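Risk register update: the risk that structure generation would not scale has been downgraded. Supporting records follow, first protein first.
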Amino acid sequence: MGSLGFWRLAQADPEWIAAVDPDGTRHAAGDLLARANRLVHGLRGLGLQDGDGICGLVPNGVEGLVLYLAALQAGWYYTPINWHLTGPEIGYIVADSEAKAFFVHERYAQEGARAAEDLDPRRRFAFGRVEGFHPYEDLVEGQPSDLPEGRTNGATMHYTSGTTGRPKGVRRRLAGLDPDDSAELMTFLLGMFGITPGRPAGGAPQAHLITSPNYHTAVTQFGGSALQMGHTIVYMDGWDAEECLRLIQEHGVTSTHMVPTHFKRLLGLPEEIKKSYDVSSMKWAIHAAAPCPVPIKQRMLEWWGDCVWEYYAATEGGGTVAGPQDWRAHPGTVGSAWPISELLIVDDDGEPVPAGTHGTIYMKMAGTEFEYKGDREKTEENRLKGFFTVGDVGYLTEDGFLFLSDRKADMIISGGANIYPAEIENEITLHPKVADVAVFGIPDEEWGEQIKAVVEPAEGAPPGPDLAAEILASLDGRLARMKWPRTIDFIETMPREPNGKLLKRKLRDPYWKDRGSAI
């Protein structure tokens, strides 16, 4: 294969600045390579073998990057964990992934320590001070910095929540490739957008801005692929619209991955601030994760020019891409199928429907067989003749452009994050004063959707603000705050069919009645 891949590039040019931390600290590729190598040697000393897994509860920055680079050259699975989760939720992922080592940053010490209660203390490591964890330095001290023997490709294993509320690890078979060759194959993702390797002939090095938490699949894939192409990774630690513009200007950022909420915040800045930063270096502002209102996309194109790209995809693989010209010709589209991906729109009986007809969206991508770890039944349940679905609904035009018309009936997309009501309902229903509960998304101008709970109080429990506050307080420590309902309404009797099926649309529709689409 060619000359892409972090490990090749770092050996050829160890002084290349591969990453910039949120505090502005710059990290040379040679230093990151040495750190990743020492970590591989250290973990192999603990007995880790090909196919094993490690988990990281770490903020955006090089700590997580080193874990990623170590796993991807040692044949391991790396699972970055959502730091908004509570101890039991984190502990479930650590246990389910069968992690042989768990790394926690001191920023998340409290929930990280709760998550590790059942994990062998010899396999807990901390960046900073975390009670009951060994310092990371103890693991790598004295380890050689040279490339380990028997290098083979690893992979990330992200957890994606299902409608049952328990997250599932999306696990792909490891191919046994040279890590750099595997990394070079990964870069096809960026190639679909026309992104080129790091340093154009005679030009400045390219940089990729990470604007969202590194535990999201897309953030890892886009940032990781950009690094494998020789781009500098610039990390943000939390979103701030003006800071985003400042970093684009300072580092000559050429690509980034955003969600529509970011666009809304950027457009909301005062005109004098927007005009005071030079964003002309940006060539690929790629967005996904939630539908982008047509007027917001149009305003971004007017401001940043034809660098705004969109795609639709899932952790499981496959998807569409819409370049600026495609989108201008088909406003609102999420694009046409990737070169190695296929789309299928079917009715409720699984039969294909004609162009322009709404149906469930199925996708498949060549060479990306996956399974939900430990759940073959769920894996098969979402498949149809080699295609899979995440339950979204849409239609294709005659010329192959996909439009989303609705999505998984219950999933809430708030600020680009997928939130699954079943998990929230399962916690609220445990409250002794709750007879029944329904959770769904309602319109929110800033976040796209906010979480609404409708509760049928138990007999003798008076509805009102006091009960709402009591229900929310009961979620503390059991459910991440990002999943808490913003508001709770009360209802005398929940609308259910005789078979017990909840008619959630009856509850949700009044909140969406003035909207063009319930998305």
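Supporting record for the second protein:
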Amino acid sequence: MDDRGSTLRELRRLLPYYRAARLPLVAAGLCALGAMLSGLVIPLVTQRIIDGPVRTGDIGTLVWLVLGVLALGFAEALLLWARRQLAGPANTRSEARMRAALYAHLQRLPLSFHDQWQSGQLLSRGVDDVATVRRFMTFTVIYLVTNTTTIVVGLGVMYTLSPVLGLVVTVCLLPVMVSNYFYENRYRVVARRAQDQTGDLATTVEESVLGIRVLKAFGRGRHLRAHYLVQAEELRQTGLRKVSILATLWATIIVLPGLAIAALLAAGAFGIADGSLTLGTLIAAITLTTYLSWPVESLGWFLAELNTSAAACERFGEVADAAATVTDPARPKPLPNPVRGELRFEGVRMRYPDAEKDVLSEVDLVLRPGETVALVGSTGCGKTTLTSLVPRFYDVSAGRITLDGVDIRELALHDLRGQVSVAFEEAVLFSATVRENVAMGTARPTTEEQVREALRVANAEEFVDALPQGLDTPIGEQGLSLSGGQRQRLALARAVIGRPAVLVLDDPLSALDVHTEAEVEQALRRVLRGVTALVVAHRPSTVQLADRVAVLDEGRIVATGTHRELLASSAVYRTLLSTMDTEPVNGMEVTAR
């Protein structure tokens, strides 16, 4: 594909975000053009001064011409000030729109997208690439157009002054244009590589910070540091390659205008000697060439920035164009009022994108209103996948899931997730206060009493009140300032504050010590009261909380019943229990005999 066409195609992506800013940006461009044209007139006035008052001694005319130069300089400065005043606010608003649109789209994208993308790559696109676009629209695009116009107009003025001198300047500046075209294509490839490497580096830094405890525990900080230094060196080499391309380009575009001035002096001297040129014309031509130097020299840099911005747009579009496959239906159905919480899996199949086989195959399961069902199975059998289908983190490949008889794909996501709440195996908390973390479990405004009620249900109010600032205590990134049991109970409080009809718990007792497990188990007994719950169980203590147990094996539900019934009838269940910790459940030893 033609690189130039590809560049323009990527830049067209900006139109929806900058449509509201088009009038201020056009006005800013006209101001910049006016400033450049004001500067172009000054050499013509200089010619009049030298060939007029300086030659004839007419002081009266000289005063007016000097005042004219002063007025042109003032107009140039004023128009440049106006350009910044017009372009700055319009571009920052568009930048904010781009970031907001990208962030909102990231929230809409399914988990299958996030499973495949590194967080550092997403971060670099939402921060660095959008900032690159804003700089391009604020400065580069305006002056790329303005300076090109200035060069064309300047050469026209030069030919008006003297066709010979105009030809000399054209011959000297033409190689600059060729160099710009040659180097811009090379620069684009390197610029894209640098942006991708920046994203990789951001991912490494983020993972190192989030996993600092693991790195310290296993003494792997030095290993990851070496990996980071390799990535940093690759980025440095790419940066040096960019510098090398720009250095060659700048050397070309700086030398050639200098040669143009030398050629003008030589041609002008002969012209003055034979009477075909005046001194004023020569000085005006030299002044004009000097004035055109920056527009000519800047073209290389502007074209480099053009390609950098096109690469940034391309990277932005890789996320912005990703399909949001889990979406609201065209005509959402209402949920029954009140919601009873009956959950049905009917012939559910699930296959991840690019996977060779189904993770879930013909799953049939019914959860009656208010019933707690424990889901047990070996590692990799599809338990987490099954629980992820209920709030539509993924959509089923075949079959359907219904809530109170309505296919969940026919419900608005907001309505569905207002009735289905989730607590994950890992209690993910945010860099916010306790109050804000708990209130995140519902889209509705919450009172302090509602937050406290959720904490009481999750058996968390006592330890929260003991924190330095109570509900308003910042808990730090990932909630690492709290114990595992405290984090898990806050996650449970967050799950129940919205009073959901269905609760999905993915192994809430995993990785807890015996004392902490007892605390969380006590909280779970209160949380599960009165709601329909699907609980992934890896421990007998979790099984003990359930009314019934469903056994998942190789993507299928192979048995359902109470713990006692399955011990008597299901060999798969007995085998699974034999791999769990040995402890009594309902007064019976759970290990297989």
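The longest helix spans residues 221-274. On this basis the risk owner (M.S.) recommends closing the item.
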